[in-house]
Design brief:
The protein is α+β, with helices and mostly antiparallel strands. It is built from 9 helices and 5 strands. The protein has one domain: NADH Oxidase, CATH 3.40.109. Keywords: Flavoprotein, FMN, Oxidoreductase.
Length: 198
């Protein structure tokens, strides 16, 4: 598939068939996600893969899947054959930027104008979402509500210095309901692109 077709075809799909996704396919997807850039080649990104039914159900509950179902969507988190949890480690970036090749002229860690650990995991997630489409599969994204965040971390045994950023259900697409937010349409190109300054 041409890259431009992969990009245009990518969307959040919230319904999956019961067909499994082969473990080697998941490995290929994550191998591509690992190719994302990272500040100082820190590689603070990591992923948790979940396929066990009881664990998927527990994650779906913590993502308030029932709220989606009440809004007319399918049980797309618990029904997906694979859940991928992207994570980032702010601590890894602080550690990397205290190394001799990254400290400033005073021997100090740089001031972070932007939390690049968020940028980097975003890049990894997008590569994963595009790789999913290229494999003929589909994916979505679900956040973990603040009131369930601690339980989510505990369920997956996530270390304190690592932050999960959400849940990506992956599977074979089924006919789904489009998000009503799409009615907003894409913003005008003139509002999206600014030449030579804002």
């Amino acid at each position: 598939m041409e890259f431009s077709d992969v990009v245009r075809k990518r969307r959040m799909v919230r319904h999956f068939t019961s067909e499994p996704v082969a473990p080697e396919t998941v490995e290929r997807l994550l191998a591509l996600a690992q190719r994302a850039p990272s500040a100082g080649f820190t590689q603070g990104q990591s992923f948790i893969v979940v396929t066990r039914e009881e664990m998927k159900n527990a994650i779906a509950e913590l993502c308030d899947e029932q709220e989606y179902v009440s809004s007319g969507f399918h049980s797309f988190i618990s029904e997906a054959p694979v859940l991928v949890i992207p994570c980032t480690s702010e601590a890894a970036y602080h550690s990397r930027y205290q190394e001799s090749d990254k400290v400033d002229e005073d021997g100090e860690e740089i001031a972070w104008p932007v939390p690049y650990w968020h940028m980097d995991i975003g890049c990894s997630v997008m590569l994963l979402l595009l790789a999913v489409v290229d494999e003929g599969l589909a994916a979505a994204f679900a956040g973990v509500p603040a009131h369930n965040f601690a339980r989510f971390r505990e369920l997956l045994g996530i270390p304190s210095e690592v932050t999960p950023v959400g849940v990506i259900p992956v599977g074979h697409p089924a006919q789904d309901r489009l998000s009503p937010s799409l009615k907003r349409g894409r913003k005008a190109t003139t509002d999206f692109i600014h030449h030579e300054g804002w």
